[in-house]
Design a protein that fits this description.
Blueprint: H1 2-8, E1 41-43, E2 50-52, H2 53-73
Bound molecules: zinc ion.
């Protein structure tokens, strides 16, 4: 459903594997459940990077999608 709507709107649809988008650090790549100190907060246990968990996960998903897009467009 979403896929068809995106194509109707002339958008590119990219499916992203959600693995480690919520517990992988956007700075150093360290992925661990302990990075999620609470539902709302991400704190990397390796580099100390702190972020709002939802926004952090969204940036990880965006980066993964853009990387896939670059890989498939080449
Ligand atoms: Zn980190």
């Amino acid at each position: 459903m979403l896929h068809a709507k995106a194509e109707d709107a002339g958008r590119t649809w990219i499916e992203v594997n959600p693995r480690h988008t919520s517990d992988g650090c956007e700075c150093c790549g360290h992925a661990a459940p302990e990075n999620r100190v609470s539902q709302a907060e991400f704190v990397c246990q390796r580099c100390g990077h702190k972020a709002a968990a939802d926004a952090h996960a969204a940036r990880n998903i965006l980066r993964a999608g853009l990387a896939l897009h670059t890989a498939t467009a080449a």
